Amino acid sequence: MLNLNQLIMKFFRTLATLFMACVAALMSTTANADEPYPGNYAKAPRFKALIYYSTDAELAHVQFAEQAIAFFKDLNVGDGFILDTTTSLAGYPYDRLKDYDVMIVINASPWAPKEREAFEKYMENGGGWVGFHAAGYHDANTKWEWFEQFLGAGTFLCNNWPPQPALLQVDMTNHPVTKNLPVEFVAAKCEWYMWNRPANSRENVDVLLSLSPKNYPIGIKDIVSFGEFPIVWTNRDYRMIYLNIGHGDEEFKSPTQNLLLINALRWIVSRSPKGNPFK
Ligand code: ZN
Questions:
Q1: Is the pTM of this model over 0.70?
Q2: Domain 48-270 sits in which CATH superfamily?
Q3: Which residue in 12, 26, 134, 188 has a CA-CA distance of 20 to 30 Å to 96?
Q4: Are 166 and 229 in contact (CB under 8 A)?
Q5: Among 9-13, 138-142, 231-235, which is the least confidently predicted range?
Q6: Separation of CA 206 and ligand 1 centre (Å)
């Protein structure tokens, strides 16, 4: 038991300790005034993005589009960037497109020659493209030679069915898009496309993630048993990234995959010819 004197002494010692702690905190604040501050709060929207999508597509691709728009709108809470959406590029000649640091193309592709021309000019002049799943779909009927070399993967070859989750492997672990991802993870349920010329057969293409061969054979009705299966890649001749992700209404259930999507957007935007808006 403490007597009264001891209690008084303890009270004053505690008071003195608190006082010294306050002085130390104050001095440390003053001393750090010129130190770099780790936060970088936006004073204005950092960049401008255009989502291009279609409602006139197979149900699973429309479901993905709706959820993807919600996902990117959610990223924009607080107005970190300007986000416009359109289902048609008819009103987007090159002069309008060039204002956008990035186009997020979800499940659509232009068919009208003028729209294709504007898009080509946009990409040839430093435009940014984050393309998902059906946005990269390309076969003999598409008749768009420029797009084939832009995508860097040839034409659609085959896919698994039904859509299912799959083990993805990171092929380039030191890339800004993959550096904080596990080297392997199970991606959300998807219809995975294989291409007739694997993206990694081209010198100017970097495959960032691919479907792990451990998945083979993949599919129940339609089965893919072997072959190169790139899933995320970039053609270094353009400021572009393609992600085969984008089928159905379960695509945003994997936090790892969501992180990959954010990384992809951030990487493309960070290389805007107008400068890195995140700095
Ligand atoms: Zn699909």
A1: yes
A2: Class I glutamine amidotransferase (GATase) domain (3.40.50.880)
A3: 134
A4: no
A5: 9-13
A6: 23
